[in-house]
Write a structure and sequence with these properties.
single chain, mainly alpha
């Protein structure tokens, strides 16, 4: 059954990307470049439809609880609507918060499957909603150059699946993570090293939702949750640093920009997308795997490890901004 599931996932991921690459313009799924884009010509978007299919079909076949895949599917469908026509950020955020709330509340009432959320509380619910919504948007914001969202998806979900299976965690959730990784792998050839189709919000927002929910579902303690979340460390670190810089600069935080480190490397520094994407993937693997093993040494070394890496990422971000971020980019980042 596992082999069939993975074959189906790969084919669906590839089929979604191929179909949208051919028929996307007819469906109104086109990304037109603007001054904030990292590409220079229109390309179809919404190729993550295949990954959406993998998530829904895989969850149903693996008998994943409904409160995982129905909220995830709903927010992904709304994101597909946003791929076709601009949708208010408030509407999208409200839908994301509602879907996250359904998952968090229902998970907290099912401690046998989601032990990290053992009973609803005034802290669990808002923190869980915040984490899921933040990850959804971070994944979406980081989907800006060829291959970065898809390759990170392959690596992040493969690592979650490996840890889940090796540590004897939920078999169905671990296999769902493996299916999503395989679906991203099927999507990847049409997006990397040279993009012929973009994943779109339908794929990137869904991957953020799925990743955060699987981190919660496969963790037994808060420290384990932080360790598993480290499999997406470059995304979190880049967004954290960029958010701080933009907030201090008085930028309009809901508007598009090109101030992420990966964008500066690809645009201002002129480094090919291929190398930037691979660099993020390498950092992702090194930090994520190291975090899990350092966790075995105890909470103090683990926290020190996280602080060290966050500090290192922040220093690197400062250096890159001073070296390559132009004055014009800074002054117009909120426009």
């Amino acid at each position: 059954m596992v082999t069939a599931l993975l074959a189906m996932s790969f084919l669906l991921g590839a089929l979604g990307a191929w179909t949208v690459s051919i028929h996307g313009p007819k469906l109104g799924l086109v990304d037109f470049p603007n001054e904030r884009s990292s590409h220079s010509h229109p390309l179809p978007k919404g190729g993550g439809l295949g990954i959406f299919a993998v998530f829904i079909i895989g969850a149903v076949l693996l008998q994943i609880p409904w409160f995982v895949w129905i909220p995830g599917g709903a927010v992904s469908i709304l994101s597909l609507r946003a791929d076709r026509r601009e949708l208010s950020f408030r509407v999208r955020l409200a839908a994301q918060a509602l879907s996250a709330a359904v998952f968090i509340v229902m998970s907290s009432l099912t401690p046998a499957s989601f032990s990290l959320l053992a009973g609803p509380s005034v802290l669990v619910v808002p923190l869980g909603i915040f984490y899921i919504c933040a990850t959804e948007n971070i994944y979406n914001f980081m989907d800006g150059i060829d291959g970065i969202a898809a390759l990170s998806g392959v690596l992040a979900f493969l690592c979650l699946a490996t840890i889940g299976l090796a540590e004897g965690r939920s078999h169905s959730l671990s296999l769902l993570a493996l299916c999503i990784a395989t679906g991203c792998l099927g999507f990847l050839p049409l997006n990397f090293p040279k993009a012929r189709v973009f994943m779109g919000d339908v794929g990137s927002v869904l991957l953020g939702f799925a990743f955060s929910c699987l981190v919660i579902g496969l963790s037994r303690t808060m420290m384990e949750g932080l360790a598993l979340a480290s499999f997406l460390f470059p995304f979190y670190a880049d967004e954290f640093n960029t958010f701080i810089v933009r907030m201090r600069g008085g930028d309009v935080l809901t508007r598009a920009h090109r101030r992420h480190i990966y964008q500066i490397l690809a645009n201002q520094a002129g480094i090919p997308h291929f190398y930037v994407t691979v660099l993020y993937g390498i950092v992702q693997i090194i930090v994520g795997i190291s975090a899990w093993f350092v966790l075995k040494s105890g909470p103090v070394p683990f926290v020190a490890f996280l602080v060290f890496n966050i500090t290192l990422a922040s220093i690197g971000a400062i250096f890159i901004r001073r070296r390559w971020e132009t004055g014009e980019n800074r002054s117009h980042s909120g426009a």
